[in-house]
Amino acid sequence: MAERSDGLAGAGLGLRRALLGPLLSAENPQADFLEVAPENWIGVGGRLGRQFRELAARQPMVLHGLSLDIGGPDALDTNLVKAVRALMQDIGASLYTEHLTYCAADGHLYDLLPIPFTEEAVTHVVERVQRVQDIIGEPIALENASYYAQPH
Hints:
The protein has helices at 20-25, 46-58, 78-91, 119-136, and strands at residues 12-14, 33-36, 61-64, 96-100, 102-104, 108-113, 141-144. The strands form 2 sheets. It has a 5-stranded parallel sheet, covered by helices on one side. Strand 2, helix 2 and strand 3 (61-64) form a beta-alpha-beta unit. The N and C termini lie far apart (37 Å). The model has no long low-confidence stretch (mean pLDDT 90). It has 4 helices and 7 strands, in the order βαβαβαβββαβ. The longest helix is centred in the C-terminal third of the chain and has 18 residues, at 119-136. The protein has one domain (31-144): TIM Barrel, CATH 3.20.20.150. The protein is an alpha/beta fold.
């Protein structure tokens, strides 16, 4: 794998709260970076917040969001995007990725649903990606959704 300009390369590990202690006590981490769902760490303080930030100081982290709703019809949640930017700055994360899905409709659906394969959907997503990147101040990456039936 080619190394990115920010030094990220190799294999990552999805960070779960139960891994904080073992990762903090490990002398030589086996993962090259940690993948973090920002929704799980925005606003977390106390012992868990301190451990999370200590780990972030030791090991590179990338953010992989779960609920941006980049392809959805609801208004873009700019408060979430601003909170993601603040977390990125706080822990020194240089990469934010999301799912190319919709996951809200007047409330969070708790599922990552595929978007239609239309030019209208592309135009909609492009505008939203540009807005997110303007707020974040960095390019973002999108992960395709798995699906079993195409929405019409």
